[in-house]
Amino acid sequence: MTDSSNLGIKTVLHPVSDVEKAKPVYTALLGFPPQTDEPYYVGFETGDQHIGLVPGGGPQGMTSPVVYWEVSDIEAKLAEVTAAGAIVKEPAHDVGGGRLVATFTDPDGNVLGVLQDR
């Protein structure tokens, strides 16, 4: 294996059908309002983790929560997981602020994500 260290779970994205109804539930759960509050995305920063609400599953068509592990080298980690049997769903791409994200599926079709901050 290469040094594409797994730095732990960093982000969990939840698809929601109605962001205005979901927002107060997550605010109550976390104990504070979102730091990002846009019609297309609502984000909460809690400790070293980010919780996001994605209306309608976003352009990715999410149908269930997706957990993103932070890694030191996203391309190396994608190579490792695909060699182990994963299938890339969304190749690494920049989502702004120097953050790269990618998703892949495990053998049972579960969607998993990795991210790298540059």
Q: In which order are the strands of the major sheet placed?
A: 2-3-4-1-5-8-7-6
Largest sheet: 8 strands, mixed
CATH superfamily: 2,3-Dihydroxybiphenyl 1,2-Dioxygenase, domain 1
Tell me, what is the CATH class?
Answer: Alpha Beta
Q: What kind of oligomer do you see?
A: single chain
Kindly give the count of domains: 1
Q: Separation of termini?
A: 21 Å
User: Which ranges are low-confidence, i.e. pLDDT below 50, for 5 or more consecutive residues?
Assistant: none
Report on the structure:
- This protein has 118 residues and is an alpha+beta fold.
- It has one domain (6-117): 2,3-Dihydroxybiphenyl 1,2-Dioxygenase, domain 1 (Roll), CATH 3.10.180.
- 19% of the residues lie in helices and 47% in strands.
- It is built from 2 helices and 8 strands, in the order βαββββαβββ.
- The protein has an 8-stranded mixed sheet, with helices on one face.
- The longest helix has 12 residues, at 19-30.
- The protein starts with 5 loop residues before the first strand and ends with a strand.
- The mean pLDDT is 92.
